[in-house]
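Sample pair:
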Amino acid sequence: MPLVLDLIPVSARRQLIDLGRQFGYADVVAQAEQTLGAASRFASEIAEHGFIHDDVDQLRDALGLLCERTTRMSSDHLKAKRTSQAYVGAMRVGKTARQRAQAILHIVVQRLAMSGDPIEVEAARAVSAMLQQTESSRGEPARLASQLDQLRAALSMPRVDRAAMSRGGPASQQELAAAAEALRRAARIDPASQAAEPPPPSVRDPELLELDLLCGFIVELVRDARRAARSAARARRSQAIASAFELTMLYACVDGGAADTEPVPSTEG
């Protein structure tokens, strides 16, 4: 079925535009081409893990529309559609802070659970449940910022704070707070509403909004492809599948590396 942008629900359009405006069209095009190339090699493998032929077709159609729209626009006009290095950098720092806090809390949970103290055991259960909710942000700055807030709250819980004191807990709390603030600032998120503020009309005219929508649509698709590829890589014990779908084109603009650092599932079992 051909891609028809007008059929995308309003709420979903807003989310895709908010996502797409963080990335430059050239980076999105390059990533889409890389993902399509990987899909031509591993179509059957990723289809078994959720990313089917119809998804590949949608990605190809969206890429075609994006290229068609950009060829009709002047280079001066397209200068406003660049990948936000502040956004990518904030995501990188946020995920690093999340990983550190999760490492500390996982160890603390084990220690509290084995303490024999009913209060500490209950605290361990609460933190363990929270950790499961902070495993993935799907690359959404609002979700990641919220996860950082949750982790900071967990580190400050009674008994947890004491156990984490000598394990880097206080420094991690400071890092989490700073990273969450940077994320909200980079993505223009109001902490009270947790909603991304729409860009000023003078900055995002209708043509650029359509590019934002297409870019957001493509970014969601390539992320889905990567997710399926990582699952397939684990099932088949083939790191090559996961590597082929990494988002190196989207995130290479900061420090020459990928900002999306969610761990690749081990292929060793």
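Residues 193-203, 253-269 have pLDDT under 50 and may be disordered.
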